[in-house]
Amino acid sequence: MHNQTLQAPNNSPTKTNANPRRLLVMDVDSTLIDEEVIDLIGDASGKGALISDITKRAMRGELDFRQALDERVSLLKGVPVSVLEDVFKEVHFTNGALDMIATAHDRGWTVGVVSGGFHEIVDGLVAQAGIDHAIANSLQVHDGLLTGSTVGETVTKETKLRALRAWAEQDGVDMADTVAIGDGANDIPMILAAGTGIAFCAKPAVRKAAPYTLNVRDLRQVISIIDGL
């Protein structure tokens, strides 16, 4: 039987407000959605296996995320930007994701996503799910082709942590009432900083670090963890 929820009480913060306003922040690839978008783009470029291997190593914490992203994006040079429309059609919200977001909004909470993936895909997901905050990387395009580079600040583990704190302040939510959910090594800082940090179907290093673990792909269980605090 799969272990749905593992709680490490010694790492769990004490809550003083039984019904607080909350902020839920989650990773996108392999968390909000089932897929790794850069791997799908890689498949379209014919370099999927190479890109997927780099992705797995980065998510396990074996590679610096920024370097791994640069390496993978460089392999996409020359891919038509129109491929991104096809990739968007291939992604699926994780089981329970939309229900979790709807429940959060029904309770007056806010929801954000922090992605090492790309705005070109994330923006559509944000619109469909009614997500309140989002950050992601942006792909550089020239003459309808990906250049193999990104533009703007790269979203790293530090960026994700800053976003969690900034959105909490913006929304008037105490950090003790924030929830962070992710699966990769670059999610660990925000998971540890949040009032409730959840490793979701995560890599071993993330499961080891996080106060809470979900090993079944059903994001509705996030609400069950929060209600059980």
From TrEMBL:
InterPro entries: HAD-like_SerB (IPR050582), HAD-like_sf (IPR036412), HAD_sf (IPR023214), PSP (IPR004469). The active site is at D27, D29. Pathway: Amino-acid biosynthesis; L-serine biosynthesis; L-serine from 3-phospho-D-glycerate: step 3/3. It is an enzyme of class 3 (hydrolase). Its cofactor is Mg(2+). The keyword Methyltransferase does not apply. SUPFAM superfamilies: HAD-like (SSF56784). Signal peptide: none annotated. It comes from the Bacteria. Belongs to the HAD-like hydrolase superfamily. SerB family. This is phosphoserine phosphatase. The lineage of its organism: Bacteria, Bacillati, Actinomycetota, Actinomycetes, Bifidobacteriales.
